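Feature request, filed as a ticket because there's no other form

It would be nice if the structure record came with a short human-readable summary line next to the tokens. Right now we just get the raw output. Example of a typical job, pasted below so the devs can see what we mean:
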Amino acid sequence: MARARVPRAQHAGRRLVNGAASVGSIGTPFDPDRMHAAYAVDVIDGGRPADAAFCRVNMVASLDGAATLGGRSGALGDHEDQRLLSVLRSHADVVLVGAGTVEAEGYGGAAVVDADAAWRTARGREPQPRFAVVSSRLGLGPRHPFFADAVARPIVVTTERAPADRRDALGGVADVIVAGADRVDLGAALAELAARGMPSVLSEGGPRLYGALAEADLVDEACLTLAPTIVAGDAPRVASSAREVARRMRLVHAIPGERMLFLRYARGG
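Raw output as currently delivered:
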């Protein structure tokens, strides 16, 4: 699952230019400028139009492949992982997350820290990217912190079969996108976001959303923070779906932090 929040004190084809893998030194302090450059998104992969959707997924995992510790992914991260989360969000128009992860990880409030909000503003963008929640049943009410504490108008991605009264209620606090009849059509949802001027999407899971994106072949980049922790138990993997898929990715970089290893992969390989 995703790491929902930036640190509480600060809360309130696209082709890669840097295509070669890079490795730093263990224990290197976090450098925001370096990380912004390392995770830049520049042009569309595969010759797609410039306004086509681009989907990057960011997750954290233990050394033995667990996506959570004690039921939360945030317990696997550290201050550098949280800071990177803000950097990655800074490069996105929309942060896409499943409803279960919103509940489990406590989403609500600002997406990026003040320094990254300034980074976005300096580049002619709104200070904060928008959050979008994927939900077929619309179990989150309008007073949930995801909506009530939002600093940029949230988005709800749902289906035609979603309860009409809940959809209407959420329409007062968020933009509602209907994509799919019985289950959310993620390809249609990403296309609609791109059509609304939000082509760059960062998905933070959880595992079922990641699995659905992988099944639909919508993952353009996979970013993974590898935590130096062994969890064992029965924690989920970072991606989960009803059937296996084989999507080959190529390593773009491996950047060691003070404790974590930050990995970035792109389509192909």
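Something like this underneath would help us a lot:
The mean pLDDT is 86.
The beta strands are 54-61, 94-98, 130-134, 155-158, 175-178, 200-203, 221-226, 249-256, 261-267.
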